Amino acid sequence: MATAFEKHPTGTGWVVEDHDSFRVARTTFTDQDVLERERGGIFDRCWLYIGHESELPNPNDFVRRSVGGRDLIFNRDRKGDYHAFFNSCPHRGAAVVREDKGSSISFKCFYHGWSFNNNGAFATRFAAGTYPDDFNRDGCANLVSVPRLAGYAGFWFVNFDANAESLEDYLAGAKDFLQVVADHAADGMEIVGGIQEYSVRANWKLLVENSFDGYHAHETHSTYLEYLVDAIGGPAELFPSRGNISRAYDLGNGHAVIEGPAPWGRPVAQWIPAWGEDGREEIAAIYAELEKRLGKERAEQVAYGNRNLLIFPNLVINDIMAITVRTFYPEQPDYMNVNSWALAPKGEARHFRKRRLDNFLEFLGPGGFATPDDVEALESCQRSYRNRAAAGWNDISRGMLRDEPLADDEAQMRAFWREWDRRVAKAG
Questions:
Q1: Pairwise CA distance, residues 168 & 186, whole Å
Q2: Which residue from 253, 255, 257, 259 is spatially nearest to 239, judged by alpha carbons?
Q3: At what angle do helices 296-304 and 276-294 cross, to 10 degrees?
Q4: Cβ-based burial of 73 (10 A; exposed 0-12, middle 13-18, buried ≥19)
């Protein structure tokens, strides 16, 4: 599953590592040339998250997504098969689908009326003589599929490189942690409500680092930890027994996770006093089902383990007091767009769903305790990179000499940066 961290040679000169220090050049967050290399070496080559299976529960369902700088249609056809098409009409290039989501057996371009079955096949009929009889014999009038589409544990990904390794090989050790999320419910998981969209005036890699950075939590989110005291009936210690429990793991291929206990309530099976004695009994029943279905060890991991997971390069799953699925893409070196969804067990009791969504909005949502703090921190870093000519390096060496990194070390960031360095060097 998780492997030990090892030191690796670097290839770009933007990442410098020796036996006890790890530094990243601040130009990686500011330069257009770096962003162009990232587009070619990362976003054009890696598996990128497009959506969750629950967003397409029925044949003919579709959603429109922006992934890796491309506008895509993610859908199921009449037979129920999954597809991902470039949202560009083969005729003159207009967007074929303009709605965010829906259900349709066909798609029709508003510009000239070209139509397509939802398996991508061209479906318009013209008067005789308009086009040759064998028009579209080579598929030139069909919607263009993305080169690769695959799913794992309910999460679906695309890859714009037809020769890329399989999704399962790419996910490496992250597969187990995706399965942990899927194991929350016997009947599966589902996206709840719609998408939250916002932007941040900072480089996308800063949000990668922040998303599984246990080091900043006590300082940046101290207000939330103080707020928790009443809900949990005692001190809100973020890393209890931290020397033995809360850890960082390298999952291979740039994927990494921090995992360990935390003080907040988890609707999947961690009770807090604010939920009352009735809530305690309900939580006990949820845990009993987990243990019967998964076994004691896995049930404890699902119920009591909190984890912030990165699937390289930019899918973050925060499985903490609620579950957030988040992606983010750079528009400019200092500007990114963020998409966020709430994930929950199907069939969850209404009042538990309310607690979950309250937790989601309270901490993880754009207006919650955490996100505005994080956005200000990232934008503050970005502004300060104007000083990069004199102060040009970020240090992420914390815990580098530890054999088993703690969740508030920075080993997981080093896993990301090593893979980033490898791919950007190859792209250059």
A1: 23
A2: 259
A3: 140
A4: buried
Give the tokens for residue 232. 């949990």
What one-character-per-residue DSSP string does 251-295 give? EETTEEEEEE--SS-BTTTB--GGGHHHHHHHHHHHHHHHHHHH-
Query: From the CB of residue 302, how many other CB atoms can be counted at a distance below 10 Å?
Result: 25
CA triplet 246, 411, 207: central angle to 5 degrees? 95
Question: To the nearest 5 percent, what fractions of the chain are helix, strand and coil?
Answer: 30, 25, 40
Tally of residues, the chain: 428
Lookup: tokens for 403: 């054999």
Helix (H) or strand (E) holding 78: none
pLDDT, tens digit, 9 for 90 and up, residues 376-388 = 999 999 999 999 9
Of residues 215, 212, 216, the one with CA closest to residue 250: 212
Which phi and psi angles does 70 have, rounded to 5°?
A: -120, 145
Q: Per-residue pLDDT tens for 14-39? A: 999 988 899 999 999 999 999 999 99
Task: Please give the model's pTM, rounded to 2 decimal places.
Answer: 0.92
**Nearest-angstrom CA–CA distance, 283 and 268:** 7
Nearest to 306 by CA among 384, 240, 352, 362: 240
Residue 181: closest CA among 171, 194, 193, 190: 190
Q: What is the pLDDT of residue 331?
A: 97
Q: CB neighbours (10 Å) of residue 81?
A: 11
Query: pLDDT at position 272, please?
Result: 80
With 50 as the cut, is the pLDDT of residue 243 above it?
no
- The conformation of residue 242, written as its DSSP 8-state character, comes to T
- Among the listed residues 304, 318, 33, 58, the one whose alpha carbon sits nearest the alpha carbon of residue 196: 318
Q: Please state, as a whole number, how many other Cβ atoms lie within 10 Å of the Cβ of residue 381.
A: 17
DSSP H or E stretch at residue 372 = helix 371-384
Give the residue among 251, 259, 260 at the shortest CA–CA distance from 415.
251
Query: What does DSSP say about strands 148-152 and 155-159: parallel, antiparallel, or unpaired?
Result: antiparallel
- Burial (CB count within 10 angstroms: exposed 0-12, middle 13-18, buried 19+), residue 129: exposed
Dihedrals phi, psi of 173, to nearest 5 degrees = -70, -10
In the sheet with 101-103, reading across from the earlier edge strand, the strands are 82-86, 70-76, 61-67, 101-103
Written as six digits, the tokens of 55 are 């967003």
Cα–Cα dist 28/43, whole Å: 16
Cβ neighbour number for residue 49 with a 10 Å cutoff:
21
